[in-house]
Write a structure and sequence with these properties.
Elements lengths: L7 H24 L16 H6 L3 H34 L6 H12 L2 H19 L6 H26 L3 H8 L4 H12 L1 H17 L2 H6 L7 H9 L5 H35 L1
Helix pairs in contact: 1-12, 3-6, 3-9, 3-11, 4-6, 6-9, 9-12
């Protein structure tokens, strides 16, 4: 069949939308290479701001906190989200509407409400029982709570796309629960596992609001450091940090996309 070409107006709208989305990011990256300390005038390319970052102990400490927070919360959210997604699949259609609402609630709830609620909860626990003082642990718990629904829904969608007869076939072949998990379930949902981990990682690494309300004096992350620094004005070193964060998120998204495309191609060749 002959494919229809899109109307030129739609093509123009598409390019303008992309420009609107990515032009601010491009400006941040460009001015991170600025040779002078100016947020308005570009005077040539230089790596001086990237070099100075490696000598800034506060930036290194904030980056370390961001990585620890993102990796630990993503792993925990992946494990819990996998079990939750599988539970949703096994009990689908059994009056689970209330549970679906509870899962979607952290996604649609404003971050500031979520962050304030977490802060009030941890402060009350700490004042009453002397546990969960604001710091890295409270940040990890808070990040897991808002990453968990995203991972669970991805895993659930993957389970729904599988042929239900495959589960019965694995039982007919006398595979126990452990063998079914190792040799059937995990390989079958591997694309969703990878996508869920990297999605949780990017959500955690970029988060500011929830991290700000649940952090302690020694657990500031890169977004929190940037917020404190821009109160004194935007400088090229802040742009350099932003450019590195953009690169980190972009790499994570590309790795997840490549792995997903390879898995789909492999499945297509098997079919």
């Amino acid at each position: 069949m002959r494919q229809r070409r899109a109307h030129p107006a739609f093509a123009v709208f598409w390019w303008l939308t992309l420009l609107f989305l990515y032009l601010p990011l491009a400006v941040v990256v460009l001015f991170s290479f600025n040779a002078i300390n100016s947020a308005a005038t570009f005077a040539g390319f230089s790596l001086r701001w990237y070099t100075s970052l490696f000598g800034n102990d506060a930036v290194i400490h904030a980056f370390y906190n961001s990585m620890v927070l993102a990796l630990s919360s993503s792993v925990i959210a992946l494990v819990l989200g996998t079990f939750l997604g599988y539970g949703l699949y096994r009990h689908r259609g059994r009056r689970m509407g209330w549970l679906i609402i509870l899962i979607y609630l952290p996604i649609v709830m404003p971050d500031v409400v979520f962050g304030i609620s977490d802060m009030a909860f941890f402060v009350r626990l700490n004042s009453t029982f002397g546990i969960l003082k604001p710091g890295m642990l409270t940040m990890i718990i808070s990040h897991v709570t808002f990453e968990l629904p995203f991972v669970a829904l991805l895993i659930y969608a993957r389970f729904v796309s599988l042929d239900a007869a495959l589960f019965d076939a694995s039982k007919d072949l006398y595979a126990g629960p452990v063998k079914r998990a190792l040799y059937f379930v995990i390989p079958a949902i591997k694309p969703a596992l990878v996508a869920g981990f990297f999605l949780a990682f990017t959500l955690s690494f970029d988060d500011f609001v929830i991290s700000f309300f649940t952090s302690g004096p020694e657990s500031a992350t890169l977004p929190i450091y940037i917020w404190g620094a821009i109160r004194r004005g935007i400088s090229p070193d802040i742009n350099a940090i932003g450019a590195l964060m953009i690169a980190a998120v972009l790499i994570a998204a590309l790795v997840s996309l490549i792995f997903t495309l390879k898995s789909r191609k492999r499945e297509g060749s098997l079919n």
